Amino acid sequence: MASSVLRSQIPLGGICDVESAKHVARRLFESYDRDRNGILDQGEVAPMMVDAYKGMSKGFNPSKSDIDTYLRILDRNGDGKITIQDIEALAIKYLVGITGESPKRPKRQYSKFVEERLDVARRLFRKFDQDGSGFITENEVPQLLIETYKSMGIHYNPTQEDVKSWMRMTDLNDDGQVSLEEYEDLVIRSLQHAGIQLE
């Protein structure tokens, strides 16, 4: 019974669930973050590369170019730093098998107040999904943020760092774009954080 429950939490093509993948990522990150500053630098990534090749019974002495390429691959959000979130995103992608698919949230009945906020969010999402792809890309985020704050009576002009931060919070599967469901999840989390009763 327990194994069938566990199997039902593992997406097709995955070898573990999200929490297990995050655990693997944390263990991996902690074993290479020697200075414990929360960021993997070139000196910490090179041994990771060497060990990965050792695991395949191959020797490898990475060049600076190899390390730079590896750093770009590991830096999932493009902020120039390899953090635990970057390693978790890769672990989820390769161990769980979630790629380009938003985590599914069970349908719930929300209060009228919450549904009104979600309706506004849906209208804004459709308005700023300029190419009609069903996703918001980083290029479409600034106008979305400006309009969202404007609807609350606040003048706000987001910086590039604000946009990147918003993407990190919202793009749950780290595919570089935000689905409507991911955007709704952000709205719900924000309302919960503000202490608003959801149901």
From TrEMBL:
InterPro entries: Calbindin_Ca-bind (IPR051001), EF_Hand_1_Ca_BS (IPR018247), EF_hand_dom (IPR002048). Pfam families: EF-hand_7 (PF13499). GO terms for cellular component: cytosol; nucleus. It comes from Paramecium octaurelia. Keywords: Calcium. The keyword Transit peptide does not apply. This is EF-hand domain-containing protein. One of its GO terms (biological process) is regulation of cytosolic calcium ion concentration.
